[in-house]
Amino acid sequence: MDETTRILQLREELHRHNHRYYVENAPTISDQEFDFLMHELQELEARHPEIFDPNSPTMRVGSDLNNEFETVVHTRPMLSLGNTYNREEVADFWQRVSDGLMGAPFQVCCELKFDGLSISLHYEEGRLARAVTRGDGVQGDDVTANVRTIRSIPLQLPLDADYPREFEIRGEVLMPWSSFDRLNAEREKSDEPLFANPRNAASGTLKSKNSSTVARRGLDAYLYYLLGDGIPGDGHYQNLEAAARWGFQVSKNMRLVDSLEGVFAYIDYWDKERRNLPVATDGVVLKVNSLAQQKSLGMTAKSPRWAIAYKFQAEQAETTLRQVVFQVGRTGAVTPVANMDPVQLAGTQVRRATLHNADVMASLGLHIGDRVLVEKGGEIIPKIVGKTTSATTDDSEPALPFIEYCPVCGSRLVRYEGEAAHYCTNDTGCPPLILGRIEHFISRKAMNINSLGPETVDDYYRRGLIHDAADLYSLNLSPKERSEEKILQSLEESKKVPFERVLYAIGIRFVGEIAAKTLARYYGSMDRVAEASLDSMLQINGIGEVIAGSVIQYFSNPVNKAFVERLRGYGLQMEIGEQQRQAQSDRLAGQSVVISGVFQHHSRDEYKSLIEQHGGKNVGSISAKTSFVLAGENMGPAKLEKASKLGIRIVNEDEFLSLIADGEKS
Ligand code: IVH
Fold it and tell me: What is the pTM (predicted TM-score) of this model?
């Protein structure tokens, strides 16, 4: 068999195994065998870019192409549904349908309302052609590259099935609880903000610029609406059964009913049972089953008359408010938290609930001893949504106030314009902020002291061994202890981290990576940055008043100055490297360079700065404007294909290095 035939065969085989694994939950080969076949396909595809296929199973792992989403107009507008929270309105819906159909018998398909974001998938000749988000209902974002990484969405339908040549299928992309919990646990560890609920996590993920992030995060999808000419029959339910045969993941919990009692039985059952589902649901959707009847019922301006969504009541419980405490996060943001008498809510005992911020607190107007309503909606943290009985009958008794001073360090809180939160800004004297700053200092994009985790830092701080990040360099660690040896090693390595990252690491408020780089390149040393005047900084492209003001403020604080001096004493880079200064040329001036693949001599980031140092620009994706692609090993097939199509030069590592070496002479 020639390699091309083998590629086609492997693709077909892997599509089948994917479906067995992700949709049927009944794999017929082991993970190892699967990986083995996948590997074989990857290798063969790398050798045969001429038969590149965006729907190959190898595309499931995503790429690091920058996805700029294109806006596309929906072929058929994506309407939303009328919502109701009460049973009378469900009965009204039933009656309206019955009247609209002049008393003719009808069936209703009851479905779960999945809590994610809706997606429209287009298939042509059995292949996924396009995936578009709902957007505003008229047009949405083309997120095809990201959707391809969702394993339960078929990229290629079985060749022998009876699907129409072209059709659209809509459904919900969601993040299962298991992926959600894992993601939040990871984010907590690295001190990134948590997602409030799986819907936000799914939507954030699907809009990610990087499809390999999407691939990692484990999204899933359920399809619930088949559209287009030539779809199998008149029954919505039956059409979805057909879609399931073609390989789509369709909920197994749909039911056809022919009475209002049937609808209520379905609602009652799932109101409880939904807690045992692997994904979040927030209600049920009722749809008239016959497409002919749907058509005769028609639409209102916003939504179809043949369907309605019944939303489950968020679970609430009543309890007594005992105390409000204020928590200071690592960014300095202050959150009011209520302590209450313990109460059972959605399967767990709850005694704390968030009050979000000063505005929410004020609108609730709380007093200690109030009976309050606690709700656990889509969010994982319960919140107080109102009160039932006030502890006081005296109207003049003032409600609990928000605080003015930090509960940890006592400094005055600040509320920035346009922000809901109050902040403690005492970042050299308030413990949670100090910890936040140390964690920032060691983070990957700053000093990259990766052998130190937040727990160890916490522990050192609590034991009084460190008070700021500079203390890390004088810790009494023993090279004989394996874990401590590693810490010593990465502390040592951090002394080589270039100045621009040191400037970022010291944690000047509002000075992110880009601003740090800009300031470092412009001034060349810490001393010159520290002495820079407001006027001088405002001359720099990309530096505005907020950043410049913050730099001045930082260096006017003697504690910060002393901190920087101690870092200098430990040998951190306080000026732009000799190499960086010398190597600069304009050899790549005006050139846009795309980096792809794995490299031998330098890291990707190093190549990125080399390109910049020689006047070039590193861009994420190949276009007609790209000057050349700097390609390492295993360059992605998508990039290869695009580059060859546009006739863009591929430059390997050695060629690139001699290109800029020539530049040094000129
Ligand atoms: S049917 C015209 N079915 O709920 C029919 N929607 O406003 C349109 N949803 O935007 C949708 N589960 O994102 C349908 N089984 C289900 C659903 C569902 C969740 C979402 C969908 C839609 C919103 C309704």
Answer: 0.60
